[in-house]
Amino acid sequence: MYDAFVLVSFGGPEGPEDVLPFLRNVTRGRGIPEERLAEVAEHYRHFGGVSPINAQCRELLAALRVEFAQAGLDLPSYWGNRNWAPYLADTVRRMRDDGVRRALAFVTSPYGSYSSCRQYLDDIARARAEVEGAPEIDKIRHYHDHPGHIAPHVDAVRAALATLPPQRRSTTRLVFTAHSIPSAMAATAGPTGGRYEAQLREVGALVAARAAPDIPWDLVWQSRSGPPQVPWLEPDVSDHLATLAEAGTTSVVVSPIGFISDHLEVVWDLDTEAARTARRLGLDFARAATAGTDPRFVAMIRELVTERLDPGSPRPALGTIPTWDFCDPGCCPAARPRPATTG
User: Fold this and answer.
1) Residue 337, preceding bond cis, omega within 30 degrees?
2) Average pLDDT for runs of 10 along the chain of length 343
3) Does the pTM exceed 0.90?
4) In a designed cystine with 288, which of 246, 252, 255, 259 is the match (CB 3.0 to 4.6 A)?
């Protein structure tokens, strides 16, 4: 039924000369002024003009090839991005030339909304339209509550907590974060709206219950972009840290459950800006790791592939929010303006 696998991601610059062209790709058609792009470019230059995301995709793909081989899955594996090389259309062209007829796509977001799901479906459709004779490509289902996604976050929160003063546990807070999106986009996420927030809250509850059931937790947002007059999901993580400090919290574990690996949004917005805010407020601060190439996460992707190859196989899920293999064409419509995210 399927004869290939393709990893579909956001993409990111791999050198200083790539940064502004990449940001123009990301924000094309959104009216973002050049001075704002120059400001964001400085975040990349702080890390040598390189986003971590492409290296992380290479590592994940390498781990998957080993995982597939060990499981006897004979699926050639490919990788294509939305905003930077390897561009998805170029990858689809190579797949066609290799004789691929029908592929499964895994996207690097577990959640449902325009920017985290529907836009990837649009990317796939656009790439296929550019390539005559392109293979069919079906996207793998949402995996937010799969045990292989939850378990790495649980262990990461436990490890982060272990670095904080144990005598302050009673005044410690778990702060789960995800990329903010426009409120209008959040309202239309999923078939009946609100899916993005609901899935993230379910993940927060699942992780907190397993990692530290005695510690209160919050879901907050980060990496907002776009015109200030457009409402986005709030509160922002740094604003929330100030609120917590004022209320007597002494220590925080920040867990970026909205990300599967350490994107620029994680290493800049959390490790740099949120950590700086915590120091200013006198808060103990620990950032929990993302799933990355954790063996359980890699095995999860193999299990998701197996689900589609064998419809009778188990569909592991720890939560109650339903998932499905094919999205309705009208699900998660685009809201304007679209978010100018980074990778």
Assistant:
1) yes
2) 97 97 90 88 95 97 98 98 98 98 98 97 98 98 98 98 98 98 97 97 99 98 88 97 98 98 96 98 98 98 97 95 94 66 49
3) yes
4) 255
